[in-house]
Prior knowledge:
The protein is α/β, with parallel strands linked by helices. It contains six helices and 28 strands.
Amino acid sequence: MKAIIPLAGKGTRLRPHTHITPKPLMRVAGKPVLDFILDDLRRVGVSETIFVVGHLRDAIRAHVNARYRDLAPRYVVQEVQDGTAGAVALAEPWADEEVLILFADTIFDVDLEMVRSLAPGKAGVIWAREVEDYQRYGVIVTDAAGDMARIVEKPREPVSRLANIGLYHIRDHELLFRGIRRVLTGPPGPSGEFYLTDAFQFMVDAGAKIVAAPVEAWLDAGNAPALLDANRHLLERGRSGVAGEARVEGSAVAPTARIEPGASVTGSRIGDNVTIEEGATVSDSDLQDAIVGAGATVKRSRLRSSLVGAGAVVRGFAGSLSIVGHSEVRANG
């Protein structure tokens, strides 16, 4: 089984951070978002991973080559941002067996091992999460057997509450790419892009059975509030704690905070949902709902709902802040 990961987008919802950091390399609970996905691929035994790259492609390539050479990475450049179908189409020359397709702006908790026991008559799996605000998503309408019948984008009526999360396993890769080619030769969607979900609809209309499978957790990581929500979820489920190599003096630290090795926290209150990364310094400050990047400095500040980039300096600031690495914010002298 091979994996296809489209990550050519510019990450506009996470600017200014994504001017210098690819969205998939934004860190949450002490780890790049992309690494959560790649660790899952490593566990399931993927033989080759095809990365569809674009914006800041060299940073993606350097990161993957340094940490995940065992996933046999291959890179193809998406020069034109023409949608998800266009991105996956670029992987066709190497996608010569069943594939996993994963979009790198979400963190998910699913049973990928189920693809090993998929019934012989099934063409693949589309994972879905039941949501209340179904109008925001593409939702999956299933038949009596629980297979995908159709996908409806942002429905006004509650035809389904199963949101498509952007994670797919396709066993019949030849039919998939036949569908993608059909999509790309037709008119684009309302946004001017070509949608991968239309290729899945082509497969279903041709008789393919694609199972709609449940998701335990699905965390968007595409904007700052969502990144902080993902941080909270992960800290509450085992990624919190104070590293033995961290220095914490005269400070109160909430159970759902993470302080990494080499970090220094003095005279401060570290509240819920805070990650202080390796080598960062926090002193005389009060933090809650915040990610402080590696090597950053926060002094005499009160931060809420904040992202502080690696190596940044914050002094005397109170409020919500979102600054890129190696920036400086100084207030109140």
